[in-house]
């Protein structure tokens, strides 16, 4: 495999360039000099409120930096975090940073987000963190902006994180600057259960959207288990039926209606109920 072309000045400096560009385009942000850390520019105005930090392992910068702002994150870091995606090495390193911060007198908590529905290894670190982390950013950010206490924020976002589920699907691999693609996919393959660094399986793509929804339903039933797996599997299985006849826009609308109607019929829930989320 060849190394894909990238519009970067240099591989070693591309993360710093990206952060500098982000701050230059957003006057509400600032950089912590000497570190790959982005922060809100109005820190003085929000003094006394809970600060929300999120981030990933070194090498993923400027991940999460676009979620800094009023009602969202206070800052994005690669060492200490309040909101973490669930990867074993990251959890250990962030946990060490948290303990060091506590030793210096800071009242710090860590919320680990594990929303991956395709790769649950309960005897290890558990589910991995994917895009559900962004929803936790918003829930925690809104609470912090309203002046909620640290205990209240941790309690509510922890409860919200338990109800999250994400199923990744990829048609092509990615590559970091200066490196080859992280894996190979044939033209007739896709990957179900793709996360940031790992995946569940590669398989030929279904010939039609209806078959794809059915395949996703089977995977959710297999990997999620419990009532959540059945709920999402029921929705996708019912939604697949209208797409057997057509794949135009009205058919997709019918598919959504069919999925919701099935959950109402078998689950006894109405739109807006928490069990419909």
UniProtKB/TrEMBL annotation:
Names of required cofactors: Co(2+)
Gene3D superfamilies from the UniProt entry: 1.25.40.340, Dihydroxyacetone kinase, domain 1 (3.40.50.10440)
Any one GO MF annotation of this record: glycerone kinase activity
Annotated DhaL domain residues: 134-277
PROSITE patterns in the record: DHAK, DHAL
Residue ranges of every copy of the DhaK domain listed in the record: 10-277
GO biological process: glycerol catabolic process
Parts of the chain that traverse the membrane: none
Keywords: ATP-binding, Cobalt, Kinase, Nucleotide-binding, Transferase
EC number: 2.7.1.28, 2.7.1.29, 4.6.1.15
Catalytic activity: D-glyceraldehyde + ATP = D-glyceraldehyde 3-phosphate + ADP + H(+); dihydroxyacetone + ATP = dihydroxyacetone phosphate + ADP + H(+); FAD = riboflavin cyclic-4',5'-phosphate + AMP + H(+)
GO cellular component, one term: cytosol
Role noted for this protein: Catalyzes both the phosphorylation of dihydroxyacetone and of glyceraldehyde, and the splitting of ribonucleoside diphosphate-X compounds among which FAD is the best substrate. Represses IFIH1-mediated cellular antiviral response.
Assembly description: Homodimer. Interacts with IFIH1 (via the CARD domains), the interaction is inhibited by viral infection.
Name the record gives this protein: Triokinase/FMN cyclase
Provenance organism: Amazona aestiva (Blue-fronted Amazon parrot)
